[in-house]
Design a protein that fits this description.
Blueprint (H helix, E strand, L loop, with lengths): L1 H4 L6 H23 L5 H29 L5 H25 L3 H9 L3
Helix pairs in contact: 2-3, 2-5, 3-4
Length: 113
């Protein structure tokens, strides 16, 4: 739990997840946008995005906390970030598996009415 709470200083494996998530997200979002609806590639991209976005954001927000939040309140703020990350992961998973998908939701932003 301590590594999750202090994800920015949890060691090399967490650093590796953060740095490699840039590349994964850069590949998964276009795959989600251009793959056919209901296809296996799209479903895999959607699930990857639903896991990758919250993981990337969780570690990045912990860096922000370390840099900008006073030390006395960092632990409660970090606990809030864990809650935010869990809610984000659940919402994106529901969207990816039961809704139009993350790519489908992004496409809806540009859809003319």
């Amino acid at each position: 739990m301590n590594k999750l709470l202090f994800a920015d200083s949890a060691g090399a494996p967490w650093q590796k997840v953060y740095s490699n998530s840039h590349y994964a997200l850069a590949a998964l979002l276009p795959a989600s946008l251009v793959s056919p609806q209901g296809g296996a590639i799209r479903k895999m991209a959607e699930v990857g995005l639903a896991a990758g976005i919250p993981a990337h954001n969780h570690i990045a927000l912990n860096y922000v906390i370390s840099d900008y939040i006073p030390r006395g309140i960092q632990v409660p703020v970090r606990a809030g970030v864990i809650g935010l990350s869990v809610i984000t992961a659940l919402g994106l998973t529901k969207l990816a598996l039961g809704g139009p998908g993350i790519g489908g939701a992004v496409k809806e932003l540009w859809k003319k009415k």
